[in-house]
Each structure stands twice: as C-alpha cells, then as structure tokens.
Amino acid sequence: MARTVTRTRRLRWNPALVAGTVLLSATALVVLVASFVLGEDAHALSAQAGQGPSGEHWLGTDDLGRDLLARSLVGARASLFMALIATGISMFLGVLIGAAVWTAPRRLREFALRIVEISVSYPELLVAVVLAAILGSGPWQVVVAVSVANIPVTARLTANLSGAIFQRDYVTTARLVGVPRRALISRHLMPNMAEPLLIQLAASFSTGLVAMSALSFVGLGVQTPDIDLGRLLADALPAIYSRPVEVVGPTMMILLMSIGAMLVGDGLAAAADPRVTRRPASTRPVPTRSKDVGSAAPVVVRDLVVSRADGTDLVHGISFEIGRGEILGLVGESGSGKSLTALSLARLLPDGLTASATALRAGSVDLLDRPARAELADAVAMIYQDPGTTFNPALRMGTQLTEVLRVHRGKSAKQAREIIAGLLAGVHITDPPRLLRSHPYELSGGMRQRAMIAAALAAEPALLVADEPTTALDVTVAAGILTELARIRDETDTAMLFISHDLGVVTELCDRVLVMKDGVIVEELTGEALRAGQVSEPYTRMLLDAVPTLAVTS
Amino acid sequence: MNTLAVEDLTVRFGRGARSVTALNAVSVAVPSGRTVGLVGESGSGKSTLAKAILGIVPVAGGRVLLDGTDVRGLGRQQRRAFLRRVQLIPQDPYSSLNPRRTVGQTLAEALDPVHARVRQHREAIDAVLAEVALPADTADRYPHEFSGGQRQRVAIARALITRPEVVIADEITSALDVSVQAEVLALLDRLRHELTLTMLFISHNLAVVSQVSDEVVVLRHGDVVETGPVGEVFSRPTDDYTRDLLAAIPGQGAAR
C-alpha cells in the first residue's frame, strides 16, 4: 500500500514575516483602495492652494490646491506596480543567468563570470540613469532601465551561490546518475540558495523603488500630469522651505513599502529553512563557587555545567583534576560534551552556550574570574583538530607562531623567533628558519600540526588542550604527533588534556582516561587498565570494540 | 571474471613541466562479487582513481573496463547506462545529501533522474531502507534529522537502489566517530555478503580495509606498491611502506 508522501510544508510564521506582511499588505491595500476612491481628488484643482495640514486636507494642499494625501496614495500605486514589475524582471533574468553560467562548459562559464563581474562594478543607479536617458522618458522606459541595472547584482549573487553548491557531493552524484540540467537547477540549486535570494528579492524591490523615484525626480520617469512618488517629490522641491510638509507623504510611502518588503524578505528566508527551530530562552541559577578547592593539582575542574541559552544542559556537572606531567584522555562520541569541556577551559565556548562551575582553575589562574587575555595565554594553550584551518593562509608562519611571545610576553621579534626556532627543533622540524619564512600552504599537515604544538608550548602554559589533534592526519603522520606529545609530557611538566573519539589513540598515549557520554563521565580508567582491557562499563566496552583492528590472523 | 578493471591508468594534473602525475600506470582488478580495498595516505591517488573510473577527471592513458568493455569512448546513452551500473558512495555524509530534499526524494532521484517521483518508487525505497536497517518513515524526513551514521546509511541506500553491478566506496567512514564507523562497517560487511556486491573500498585506514575487503591494493604517490589477498598482505607485507602503515595503526596494543 502506498502511503501518502505529501510533506507538511506549512509556512512557519516568524515575527519579521508577520510584521512585514502586515505592513506591506496594509500599505498596498490602502494605496489600491485610495487610488479608486481618491483618484479624482488627486487631480482636482481647488481654491485652497498651498495650505498646511487641516481636518479637510490631512497633509495640506499643493500650490494648485490639490490634496496632498490623495496625491501621495495615488502616486504610490504607480511606484508600487513599477517596482514590482522591475523586481520580477531583474530577479528572473538575474537568477537564470547566474544559475545557467554554472551548467555551461568551463570556458564559456569563465567568460560569462568575468562579464557579470565587470557589469557589477558600475553603480546601479548610474546605469539606470544612462539607460533611461537613452530610452527616453516615460514609466516603461524607467522600468526597463531599472530592471536591466539590477540584473548584474542578482546574477553575480546567484553565480557565487551556485559555485559553492555545485561542489557539494549531492550535485556530483546527481550529475552522475544523469539528472537533467533543468532539474539540477530546480531541485538542487534553487532550494539551497532560497534565503539569500529572497533577501535579494526584497532588496531589489527596495532599491528599485528608490531608483525609479529618483529617475522620476530628475524628470526621466513619469511625466506630469501622471504622478508617482518621485514626481511628487520633484513637485514638492520648489516649496521645500515654505511648505516642508509636502515631502512627508511621498517619503513616508517609500519608507513604508521598502521596510515592509525587507521584513517580508527576511521573514521568508527564515521560514524557508527546514532546519530553523525556535527555542525559548530561560535562566538558570548560578552555582555557588568554592574558592578553596583544596587541591594542589595544576588543573582543577569541579561541577562543570555547560548549558544552552534555553536552559538545556549539555555537560552535567563533571569534575576532574590533571596532575603535573599527566596526560588525561577525554573520550566519547560526537555530542558527548568532550569538546565543550575543553572549550570551557579555554574560555572559547561558542555564542549561546554558558559554562558554570564551583571551581575551574588552570595553574594559578581562576578561569571563572574572566581572566585577562595575557593571563589566559599563560594558563591554557590549545592544539586544534585541523591544522589546515588553524593558521591564517595570508601570513608567514613566523609572524603567527611568535605572536603569543611578542604580544603577551613582550619579547622582541628577534628573541621570539629564536625561542620558537628552538621549540620547532624540539618537535623535529628539520629546518626551523625555513619554516618560519614559509606560508602555511607550503607545509604538510604533519608539519603544520608540529608547528602548532611548538607555538602552544611557547607560552609555557599550565594546561595544554589537544582537541583531536590527529584526526585529520594520515596514520603514519599521526603516529609521529603522538610520539611528540608523549615526549613533551616526559620532558616538561605540562598537564595535558587529550580529547578523542578513538579509544585506540587514547590507549596509546594517556595516563588516565575519562569516558564521557551525554555530558556525564561514565567511567574513569588508568592507562594500564585500559591497555589490559579491564573496563567495567558496557559503553566503554562498546567504544573499545569499535576500534578497528586488523582482522587478520597470522 | 573481472567486473571492473583499470589497466595502466595514468592521470596527470596540470600541463607541461609543471604537471603532477596523480596515478602512474595503475592496474587494479575487482573480480565479480568481491571487495577490493584500496589503501594509501593523502596524496596517494586513491580518490583520483575513483574519479577517473567515473570520468570526473580526465585520463591521460590506460583503460577502464566494465565487463571487458572499455568505458572511454562510450556514446552519451551508453555512458549514462554505465554510470547507473557503477555507483559512488561519497565520503562526507553532510555534503552528499541535499538538505532541502527528503530522503525519499533523494532516493527517488537516483532511480528516476528525470521525474524523481517518490510515490511511484515507494516499494523500491522501502525495500532499500529496510536493507540498510533504517525505519520506513525515514523516507519522509530531511537529512538534518539524522546523525552522521544514519546519513551514511542513506548514502549507501542511494547507491544501492539502482542495483549497481559495482559500488565504489570513497572513504565512507573517515568523517564518522569510531563507534559509528564500526556500525557502518558491520552494515557494509553484511550487505556485501547478502547482495554479493562487487566493491572498490577506498580508505586510508588499513584496519578498516581489512574488515570489509577480500583483496587489498596499497597505493603510494600514484604507484601500486603491494597487492594481494588481505590476510597475506597484512600478515606478511613485502613492501617497507606497507609495514610502516601497519605499524602506525593506533590501539593495536589494547587487549580485547
């Protein structure tokens, strides 16, 4: 039996969408109704010329005695329609060009991309003015001029977004199974760039509205006796000092419509993403801090809780200590809270997460006291997972590696380089001066990770946190890095926190291991017990069994 | 009989003096119903080999044979048919599924690239989801509702739904946690026996390769350095590089 597969694609309303829809539809409704009801008033001459606001004429009258409110509303209708048409044309053609460019053969694509880039470099309004001047004055000419002027921006945005999406594996696999070009664009490309395009849609409506008003204002657009908002502003200009109220009507209409459009664009973008869910925020009580932890260990963590802004706890009050010259392993699967624990120690938690604890100390620095950055540099150093992204590709290694010493230790550039060169030699870099001169891309992953370790040691931190330092590396390179960390433990007295999802790696290196699951420490083991396979917790056993081993009996 | 074979395949990137040889006259044969593991470190050319077979990168020399027929120089229609007979499971389950399409839509597209109608292929979709041990309501959900391991199951289902003759698995567990990796490997091992898959399994991890492969090919800098049945190569490696790789596997000292 075939089940129904209609997905519930209910529109998820959000505040921006509600506000924008209300604002835009109310304005549009008033404008449409007014243009029928007040159509005659807008052009009807009367004896009451040049009056200020009154009960009869809310915004006063112009120098021919016409009601300014009626004129603003009627003029807004013309501007609204013109902006809508221009937005439609420029978005349709812009998106079509931008997406088609990426399905074209390489040479044609490169050529088309350059053309788009060059045309973006001309300001839209300038292009519109030139086009309008060529086409002659009139409402249709203005619409065409503004649409054409807006195409390059949309085309470039679409092309850039398409470029990123085209490199995703799902596009590759779709192309391999022979999905036609049209379906590739409609199924894979368009839905994944919906948010930026909806925002671009709103922006192009707003800028189009303003551009067309500007063209009418300088006399290239709508001509008297027809009116739009730009024409009205031009009419109001001669009397701007004597009757400033004349500009209020058209200005307000431009503002209301463009703000409404922007809010709708923002709101639709948020509603288009199936991943966005809203969560209420809440507060939680702050645990009491105990100043005297009564421990001589260089690193002390007591009752560490990491929670989200909505009050969900991700780490549920864990405690541990790391001794001098000890490597503590922290093992668990993704989502177990191991990386959050490390980030709390380095005070690097992402926005929206807060850490609280009764004690959080590294060396002599109390990390709960919001230590100064120099102090923090003394206390904690970090080695990251991916050596490919830890360094700034634009700067030489020397500049980056000596930064801590120069900024926090006040060493001169020369002294800093000497210290770092020594440390680099320590982690078996064969030619330290050459490495300091190179850019990150010239180095292999293993060399970058060694350099990272050297830089981390430069500040002589009380705690060295290594967050999956070997996961992104080849096995032979990873083995070298592990040897290096073990040597550092033996030669210096640094306390080390080693985080990994792989019990195999941890077993090799660590003196003591904490196994974490769902934000709780489920088992603590010594390195010997782990190597001997003496684990009691079924979860640890499962992790241990998961380590791939050579399924070969020799 | 070899279902998939590459003979003296050479791939170069760049031109003239600055060109880099990614694959240097590599020959690999994947016999019908068997799994060949392709091992090597980054830069060894193992992913390039997969891409060269599928025609994503241009080939400088050599041949790719499916059932004895050279796949280069195929016409448009035949080439399309070839790409349905050979399916790729990509590495990163976060990049291989379109976040805006349900799992059902993704699977339907693999079966029917033009129309991709879920309702018409409901039976095939349910069947393949059952094979990879995912609940039937998976089809109506979006990728973000699943964990990395579940996504990789979906990616495997996407490759299997066309009932391909050859599956190329390119580092499919390297983006996963070890525990999830174990689960995906167990699934793959079950599937290759149940469905008698012919598979080219690419990984940098020898231990992983040893669990799902019958034979192994060790690549280094674009050259095949060692090849043979898994048990033989890993218990009695003849090449120094293979020995280095074996020695570098972490956690071998742990007792079970």
Per-chain topology:
The complex is a heterodimer of chains A (554) and B (256).
Chain A: H1 15-37, H2 68-103, H3 106-120, H4 124-135, H5 139-166, H6 169-176, H7 181-192, H8 194-217, H9 229-236, H10 248-272, E1 299-308, E2 313-322, E3 327-331, H11 338-345, E4 353-356, E5 359-362, E6 365-366, H12 373-379, E7 380-383, H13 397-401, H14 403-409, H15 413-426, H16 432-437, H17 445-458, E8 463-467, H18 475-491, E9 495-500, H19 503-509, E10 512-517, E11 520-526, H20 527-531, H21 538-546
Parallel strand pairs in A: 3-9, 3-10, 7-8, 8-9
Antiparallel strand pairs in A: 1-2, 1-4, 1-5, 5-6, 10-11
Chain B: E1 2-13, E2 20-31, E3 35-39, H1 46-54, E4 61-66, E5 69-70, H2 76-85, E6 86-89, H3 103-111, H4 122-131, H5 148-160, E7 166-170, H6 178-194, E8 199-203, H7 206-212, E9 215-220, E10 223-229, H8 230-235, H9 240-247
Parallel strand pairs in B: 3-8, 3-9, 6-7, 7-8
Antiparallel strand pairs in B: 1-2, 1-4, 4-5, 9-10
Helix pairs in contact in B: 3-5, 5-6
Domain ABC transporter (chain B): 4-246
InterPro entries (chain B): AAA+_ATPase (IPR003593), ABC_transp_ATP-bind (IPR050319), ABC_transporter-like_ATP-bd (IPR003439), ABC_transporter-like_CS (IPR017871), P-loop_NTPase (IPR027417)
Family (chain B): Belongs to the ABC transporter superfamily.
Oligomer: heterodimer
CATH superfamily of chain B: P-loop containing nucleotide triphosphate hydrolases
Tell how many strands the DSSP assignment of chain B holds.
10
Question: In percent terms, what proportion of residues of chain A is strand?
Answer: 5-15%
Strand order of the largest sheet of chain B: 6-7-8-3-9-10
Question: What order do the SSEs of chain B take from the amino end to the carboxyl end, as H and E?
Answer: EEEHEEHEHHHEHEHEEHH
The CATH superfamily of the largest domain in chain A is identified as P-loop containing nucleotide triphosphate hydrolases
The proportion of strand residues of chain B reads 25-35%
Q: Quick one: how many beta strands of chain A?
A: 11
What Rg of chain B do the Cα atoms give?
19 Å
Instruction: Output the structural class of chain A.
Output: alpha/beta
Number of helical regions of chain A: 21
What is the CATH topology classification name of chain B? Answer: Rossmann fold
Biggest β-sheet strands, sense, barrel of chain A: 6 strands, mixed
